[in-house]
Protein: Poly [ADP-ribose] polymerase
Organism: Rotaria magnacalcarata
Amino acid sequence: WLEPGPNTKIPALNKDLVPSDLDCHLPSDKYFDIEKFLDNMHKYQIKCTVFREDWRYVLLLDQTAKTGPFMMDLIEPHVALTHDRIDLDVSNLSLEKDYIKELGMRVDITHNPYAIELETIVDNIKNKRFQVLRPIDDFLQPRIDKMKSRGWTQLGQPMHVIPNPPPKYQVVIVPLPESTELYRTLVQTMKTYINNQVQVLSIKQIKNPLLEESYLAMKQLIAKQCKGENPNERELFHGTKGEAIDGILKDGFDDRYWGENFSKCKWGHGAYFADNPSVSHRYTEANPDDNTRVIYYNKVVLGNESILQVQNNDLMSAPKGYHSTHGQSPGQLDNDEYIVYRYGQALPYLRITYIG
């Protein structure tokens, strides 16, 4: 039932025999005494071997029992956010101590933009359906294939769910796995349009609940003003430098800081985006310490676009009846820029750190 795991010092369950292990989050408000825990296990005649890692205890239970072994992870609370990505909605159910008759969610995904209710998950289990809640990588794809081979049906496109940060934190960033299709596509796009020598060091997904709420509200407002209530949402690049790198991460595209050099911008006082990363690359600057640059990959609500081919650096907003400006430079292919003028009209989604 056991086989070597990714860490060869720690065994793993054979997934063909045992579909899953048990993940438990340790309390953040009091000390967890592993020795006391093991003493209690001994009282119930449960044999337990402990493997310690920086961010968790891995417990191997009843290794020699006739019923077969079982494994449990005890995850430290301060790292739960970055390691606790949910693979599937049907894997997100939990029980709390002293409330074992009440189903709950391991991570709350009832809020926007996910809005998945407990009843929906239970109904999916009853009907052998599931939703993917993280980017599909080389580790997740076999799980999906196995679910399908057992007669389960995948619903819709994968969602990228990241748990909210604790109240004292405003934002959390989580690495996007290198084996995901999105990661590979972005790396290839950077190499194709900037230069083939570009070295992408990391791509990290951003979770900032306050910015998300502001963006979703603006998206709904603009949608109501567009034909067919289509907000014209795009995923676009934005290059930046210096203090703005962390500023965007925490506060988004804050219109208070657009005015410093807007007289030099082609279409006025706004936040500039591009579908070609080489355009955004021009706005970056190499960090003198490590030569790295940063480009953000963003969700942007363009609404009704005003297409302008004549520069106008006096613009303070999109022309009346429009929500954004689509700036074009005649004779220059792949050089378009998209400008929004209101706070909340763009959401930083991924932070790309690279050298090139």
Summary: The chain has three domains: 1-83, 85-161, 172-355. Residues 252 and 348 are 6 Å apart (CA to CA). Residues 209-224 form the longest helix (16 residues).
